[in-house]
């Protein structure tokens, strides 16, 4: 645990500066490597040798998949300016959570959103899902430090969130979905994990706005998100543009 505490505190400032530079200027650094680029369903994906250096060369429904931010970027996720820049508290308030809800924070990273949501779920819990064991270790450290008992770290794979069928009321993905190496498989698993009438909330930088200074592959348009969600049977309910640079796009799993 001492290693984790030292890691977060010592590297926080350094990583915020360096990772911020590479996200905005040079996208080829500070990303975790993708372990397996070969598609499980070849007809769903296309692999291109010539591609954006910020991507993995793998395309899904016309969109190139972005590289994954590695656990060395933990300091960036925990930066002190995040509340001002992204206003995550507004995200939480916009979700319409109930005290007994089970929420899956998919691509939870350090658990920044998970720990904001947890106090609102007095009778429920947050499933903090990530594919990187190092991120889950950091979540475990923060869980002890904050003395929060209703956050459960879950190790996912690139193709599965590892959630039980019909077990969650809401799946939340904050600046994470565009990095999924197998979006169709992950979404299929998420939909299976949703209760009937359950919701999926995407928070992504607005791809429609060229003046938002985030690399193109780390933004998504509402049109693209809707197209990909329709492919797995989710129904669009609303889009909320209450954040400085991101939109909140909410879908629902049909009851019937």
UniProtKB/TrEMBL annotation:
One of its GO terms (biological process) is methylation. One of its GO terms (molecular function) is methyltransferase activity. The chain crosses the membrane at residues 7-24. Residues 98-228 form the Methyltransferase domain. SUPFAM superfamilies: S-adenosyl-L-methionine-dependent methyltransferases. Keywords: Membrane, Methyltransferase, Transferase, Transmembrane, Transmembrane helix. This is SAM-dependent methyltransferase. Pfam families: Methyltransf_31. The keyword Oxidoreductase does not apply. InterPro entries: Methyltranfer_dom (IPR025714), SAM-dependent_MTases_sf (IPR029063).
